[in-house]
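Internal tracking record. Fields below are filled automatically when a chain is submitted to the structure queue. Please do not edit lines marked as system-generated. If the sequence contains nonstandard residues, flag them in the REMARKS field before resubmitting.
Queue: standard
Priority: normal
Entity type: single polypeptide chain
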Amino acid sequence: MNKNDFKVIAFLAYKNIVKSKSTFFVIVAVMAMSFLSITFFAAIIDGLGYEFEESMIEGLTGHLMIEPTEDNLHLENVGILVKNIKRIPGVVGVAPRLESSVIATHKNTEMGIPVFFINPQDELKVSNFHESMVLGEYLSEKDTKVIIIGADLIQAYALEDDTQKRLNVNVGDTVRLSFGNGFVDDYKIKGIFKTGSKFSDDKVLINYDEYNKIFHTGDVASKILIKLPERGSEDYYKQKIIDLGVSDQINPWQTKMGAVKQFVGSLQITNQITGFIGLLTAFATIYIIIFINVTNKRKQIGILKAVGIKKQIILGSYVLQSLIYGVVGVIIGNLVMQGLLLLLTMYPLNMPIGDVVPILTTDRLITTSVTLIFASIIAGFFPSKKAADDNILDAIFGG
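SYSTEM-GENERATED OUTPUT FOLLOWS
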């Protein structure tokens, strides 16, 4: 085809679109809705996954976590190690933790509970427990024989249909804690926290120094959590810590996300299925509309061929129309999607895990846009080709 042929293709496509404005608006609306149906749910799932990861980072892992090697129960000389890591430029916070479990008893209720022994001041820069107090107060370094307790362990915060055993306690009540070494004592509840994460809200927090009194240990920790300025810098800071001479395990947060990955992965599979169905729906709708449109114009196509317009030009004009449908529909879908993202950034979705903001990655945006435009071209090509291949007399007289 030469330059004039392309001009004719563009002219015919333009005339067809202008003449069939209702068809244009219907197809563009379908494309825009298809774009939204594919990207919006995916953005919600990505935002949900991100929120799950953040709740793990802020409650359990930090961005980096130093753990003892398999041959050791605890990290040793923790005080000096924490000070040295805090001196690394850019490190936001460092917090040692000791982990244990207790049998908690209140009135006639007895249940096993995981316990974190924390340094309250260090935790301020690493975790979000202090920001999640729903009743009472956060721990202070001077606190002895007091605890703060996760909302998931308390009856008052249980859902109506949740029959899991919980403690019927409140701030100010006393709970008897029995540790694995036989140590038993009463602890007063200073506060109740609710982070929204199932991984954190089933814990009891006690002052770090209490561990040494109970277990008679020295300067040890089960793990050290490290908060970094942002995700993606784990390898850089891991090497900085190795340079300090640390030979223990240094694990980035991604290695602790097994349960979260499984959950988000299941949602992603569901999302892929719904996205594929949305794509098929868009493809079928465009195909049917263009097929009806082309069928109604068989006579016009026959006349064009009779006056010498090549069938490649006729086919090209309909493919160009389909391309325009796809591009305009995707652009409108993008604009609406960006508006929704802006709105939900200002007013996040309130979910049990916390406030969720949808995340639409550039890769997903490009992939969805290109796929829908390509689908619209394919959907327009086949019915147009069939019409363009028709015999001239059959096309004109409907034979």
